From TrEMBL:
Domain (HTH tetR-type): residue spans on this chain: 6-66
Protein known as: TetR family transcriptional regulator
Keyword Transcription regulation: yes
Organism this protein belongs to: Streptomyces lydicus
Keyword S-adenosyl-L-methionine: no
Length: 195
C-alpha cells in the first residue's frame, strides 16, 4: 500500500501564500516553498511542473476563493443595490479575514507570471474574469443602468472602490480600520444612487 504524501497540496500552497505576502511574487520559488514546510524540493516538482505552475495555482486558488464569496454577496438579495453593497462589504471583510491572501491579490496576475501559465491555467483565469464582467453587467442591468459609462460606474462602485480602500491600508502596512466595511458599503451605495 502506498504511503500518503507527507506534504499535501493545500499545505504547499499555504506556504506559497505566506511567502508571497511577505516578499511578493519573487519570493515564491520552489526551493523557498519547500524550505518553509521542511519538504524536499522534489515534493514540489512532483506536484507542479515548474515555478510558473506553482505561481498560477497560488494566484488562481486565492482569486477563486475570493470570487466565491463575492458572487454570493452580489446575489444575496433580490434588491440589486443591496447586493452591490454586500459585494463591496465582502471585498473588505474578506481582506480583513484573509490578510495574506489580500496582500497577494494586490499584485496582478502578470506579476504572478501569467505570460508563462499553461493553457489550462489561462482558461481558469479567463473564466473567472468573464464571470466578474458578466456579474457586473447583470448588476448594471438590474439597476436600470445601461451603456459604457454606466458599466464603468458599477465596476467602480463594486470593484475598484472597495479595493482601493483595502489597498491603501494594506500597502501602508496598517490594519483595516473597524469602520472600513461600512465606509465601503456607503460609498458604493452613494455612487450607484448618483447614477
Amino acid at each position: 500500500m502506498a504511503r500518503p504524501p507527507r506534504f499535501d497540496l493545500p499545505q504547499l500552497l499555504d506556504a506559497a501564500v505566506r511567502l508571497a505576502a511577505e516578499s511578493g511574487p519573487s519570493g515564491v520559488t520552489m526551493s523557498a516553498v519547500a524550505a518553509s514546510v521542511g519538504a524536499p524540493s522534489g515534493s514540489l516538482y512532483h506536484r507542479f511542473a515548474g515555478r510558473s505552475a506553482l505561481l498560477a495555482e497560488v494566484w488562481l486558488r486565492t482569486v477563486e476563493d475570493f470570487q466565491e464569496g463575492y458572487f454570493a454577496a452580489l446575489e444575496s438579495s433580490n434588491d440589486p443595490r443591496a447586493g452591490a453593497r454586500a459585494a463591496s462589504r465582502h471585498v473588505v471583510a474578506w481582506s480583513r479575514a484573509h490578510p495574506r491572501e489580500a496582500a497577494l491579490l494586490l499584485y496582478g496576475a502578470h506579476e504572478f507570471g501569467r505570460d508563462d501559465w499553461s493553457a489550462e491555467h489561462l482558461l481558469r483565469a479567463d473564466k473567472g474574469n468573464m464571470q466578474v464582467r458578466a456579474a457586473v453587467a447583470a448588476l448594471a442591468g438590474a439597476l436600470g443602468l445601461h451603456g459604457g459609462l454606466a458599466l464603468e460606474r458599477v465596476s467602480l462602485a463594486v470593484i475598484d472602490l472597495p479595493l482601493s480602500l483595502v489597498r491603501r491600508h494594506l500597502r501602508g502596512g496598517e490594519a483595516l480600520p473597524p469602520h472600513a466595511e461600512e465606509l465601503a458599503e456607503q460609498c458604493t451605495d452613494a455612487l450607484l444612487t448618483g447614477g
